[in-house]
């Protein structure tokens, strides 16, 4: 979605009623963010909106990007926000071989997740822990409950601590396991893309 | 949409929970991802000098061995080829950027508006990766005068500062925007042609 470089658009202030509703949307979509919402979008700080190409709105406070939204789709976290709160977003993991494809803007395909280095939810919906990778290989947690198509997901990578992409699932994680092929996340926001590099100055 | 203020917020931790992340000063990615950019060597140098501990963790022989052992020989070869291509591309882009900088000029033009009234127009800053709007703001603050970005007929933009401040602007640019070499700044003078007859 952000393969090309983006030049910063003009910022506009978000009305406080809209800011409240965005906070609600965020905590509804990402319940694990709820305890941190006052830190991420403080009630008293001015939230700004920046229009960027392809009908995407980026929300930020000062020069800190927080989340973005394509038209009226679900709010997705900017990767810098994911890095600040990595355990609060449903995550899956790709194997090492898939990293360079994802970082060049390619669609994430199922084999990158079903191979030995990939990780998907266990399927046991009772299981809940803190999401994401840890510094110790094998200790990362990639969810109990299977994720449905259309759900937002953070993409971690084998051998890396920080996440490398975020996007919406075009295939549910159960189906990924069953089929083992096909596109899983299209149009992701990934490290080094236009949104990542967008200069927000101050 | 109904808004339920307050209902959404369970009591959160009082200490900030946000992690602080070091990003690469060269390619901007988390340093563990530098290997996928085209500037690996530069990234390594930067990391080693600024964050030696992080450098050792990421680039130690053990870490590299663990990282590649999971790839097949063929996949490793392809990845290497890909990395090499990227490096060449990055080098070419850098060379091009350097060439643009060498051949670009910032023009500081003194323009006479009325009798003894001057404005100073600055153009060509974009070639040095500078944002006209931001620089205009800096000028305004520095010289406590009107400073704005206007479109010029040839298609680009220029910054128009009220008053004759050519020399001050040159000095200010050299001091604050070190990307511009001194030789690439040119001071010119222009009189507004108001009626072609000479007096
Ligand atoms: Zn780097």
UniProtKB/TrEMBL annotation, chain A:
Major location (coarse): cytoplasm
Keywords assigned: Cytoplasm
Coiled-coil stretches noted in the UniProt entry, renumbered to this chain: none
SMART domains hit by this protein: PUA
Location(s) in or outside the cell: Cytoplasm
GO biological process terms held by the UniProt record: formation of translation preinitiation complex; nuclear-transcribed mRNA catabolic process, nonsense-mediated decay; ribosome biogenesis
MF term (GO), any: RNA binding
Record Pfam families: Pre-PUA, PUA
InterPro entries in alphabetical order: MCT-1/Tma20, Pre-PUA, PUA, PUA-like_sf, Uncharacterised_CHP00451
Gene3D superfamilies: 3.10.400.20
Residues annotated as domain PUA: 90-192
GO annotation, cellular component aspect: cytosol
NCBIfam families for the chain: unchar_dom_2
Biological function: Involved in translation.
Family per record: Belongs to the TMA20 family.
Protein name as catalogued: Translation machinery-associated protein 20
Species name: Oidiodendron maius (strain Zn)
Automatic annotation (TrEMBL), chain B:
One GO BP: translation reinitiation
Superkingdom in the source lineage: Eukaryota
Binding partners and assembly: Interacts with the 40S ribosomal subunit.
Lineage: Eukaryota, Fungi, Dikarya, Ascomycota, Pezizomycotina
Species: Oidiodendron maius (strain Zn)
Protein's UniProt keywords contain Ribosomal protein: yes
Name under which the protein is recorded: Translation machinery-associated protein 22
Gene Ontology CC entries for this record: cytoplasm; ribonucleoprotein complex; ribosome
Entry similarity comment: Belongs to the DENR family.
Record comment regarding domains: The SUI1 domain may be involved in RNA binding.
